[in-house]
Amino acid sequence: MSVDPPRLVAAMRAAIATSAAVQGTTSPNPPVGCVVLDAAGRVVGTGATAPPGGAHAEVLALQEAGERARGGTAVVTMEPCAHHGRTPPCTAALVAAGIAAVHAAVADPNPAAAGGADVLRAAGVDVEIGLLADEVARGPLRAWLHRIRTGRPHVTWKLAATLDGRSAAADGTSRWITGEDARARVHALRAAADAIVVGTGTVRADDPALTARCPDGRLRDRQPLRVVMGRSEIPPAARLCAPDVLHLRTRDPDAALVALAARDVVDVLLEGGPRLAGAFLAAGRVDRVLAFLAPALLGAGPPALADAGVGTIGAIRRLQVDAVSRVGVDVLVDARPGEET
Questions:
Q1: Are residues 113 and 169 in the same domain?
Q2: Which residue of 259, 304, 315, 328 has the fewest C-beta atoms within 10 A of its own C-beta?
Q3: Which of 144, 176, 198 is the last residue of a domain?
Q4: pTM of the full structure
Q5: Domain holding 104: CATH number?
């Protein structure tokens, strides 16, 4: 019995939500989500990728489903793997469980793990790829897919500014431009990232901690790698003058990304300052822009972005807007510089 399209779409959206809950905990593995439907199309199991060394999404969903998976359908955000890495191949688990059909959103671009669809088809499993592919590719798998396809970590530039583009007042004060809801969203972004990057100028000007905190101020269980870029020394009294902070003594975005890739960093949150953001944009190394805009005006003060290599209007860096939403009193613009490279 085939599952009707609305149930498949609902299952894929549930798989996306499940994968979003583990984003940031699976690197360097992809945050995959899986929903298992029984032969009647009812949800009987869900799973998401465990931290490295743990089970994959399909295996966890099958464990929850048990015998109810036999003759059923697996809806998964990425093509099941066909290789034996830290864990056995998911294709073998699906076949052993008696799954009759698999619907995956995107194919696995990793040459070492790809080919799962062909293995499943050879075992008599119906396989379809492409269900909600765009939603999945722009969702929790976005950074991992970018890392596999380009070899570079995915970089999201996060900025907070007034409507006239100021990141601070004329006297340098910047707390708080955006409201509490926006700040809470930023802490959630930090918790989901592998690394947060700022420049030495921001360290001297703002003395940030770059921690991910809960709304009540407690530190979240998972903290990203804190990274400072620049040749200047980190001031001894700065909160980022700590053994667990990585100081990359370079201003070159490519050199920094190579160093971070060597540490299995997949998802980078670039938080500033304006000169560092300009350098990444000029180098073509910003893959996503999350702009939190406060309904406020300053008229003077440092801009959110410094020189980005644009000398004439013909070289303006136009963005493709993916979403615009309200975050409390502020507006969040989610955009990207044309097509991702």
A1: no
A2: 315
A3: 144
A4: 0.91
A5: 3.40.140.10
Q: How buried is residue 138: exposed, middle or buried, by Cβ count under 10 Å (0-12/13-18/19+)?
A: middle
**Joined tokens for residue 333:** 């613009």
Active site residue 271: no
pLDDT, tens digit, for every residue of 258-285? Answer: 999 999 999 999 997 899 999 999 999 9
Catalytic residue selected from 58, 128, 180, 340: 58
CA distance to 172, 204, 242, 250, 322, per residue, from 334 (Å) = 26, 29, 32, 28, 6
| 115 and 163 assigned to the same domain | no
Length of the chain, in residues: 341
CB 331 within 8 A of CB 295: yes
Contacts of 187 (CB under 8 A, 6+ apart): 212, 213, 214, 215, 220
Same domain? For 107 and 192 the reply is no
Give residue-wise pLDDT tens across range 67-82: 999 999 999 999 999 8
Handedness of CA 191, 178, 316, 252 (dihedral sign): negative
Task: Give the confidence band of 83 by pLDDT, cuts at 50, 70, 90.
Answer: confident
Beta-carbon contacts of residue 84 (< 8 Å; ≥ 6 apart): none
Mean pLDDT for the chain? 93
Does one domain contain both 32 and 136?
yes
Gyration radius from the chain CA atoms = 22
> Is residue 341 one of the residues assigned to a domain?
no
Q: What is the secondary structure of 123-191 as a DSSP string?
A: TT-EEEE-TTHHHHHTTTTHHHHHHHHHSS-EEEEEEEEETT-BSS-TTS--TTSS-HHHHHHHHHHHH
Cα-Cα-Cα-Cα torsion 164, 167, 168, 172, nearest 10 degrees, comes to -130
User: At which of 96, 125, 144 does a domain end?
Assistant: 144
Query: What CATH number did the domain enclosing 300 receive?
Result: 3.40.430.10
Instruction: Say how far apart CA 324 and CA 303 lie, in whole Å.
Output: 22
pLDDT digits (tens, 9 = 90+) for 175-221: 789 999 999 999 999 999 999 999 999 999 889 999 999 988 899 98
Tell me if residue 110 falls in helix, strand or coil.
coil
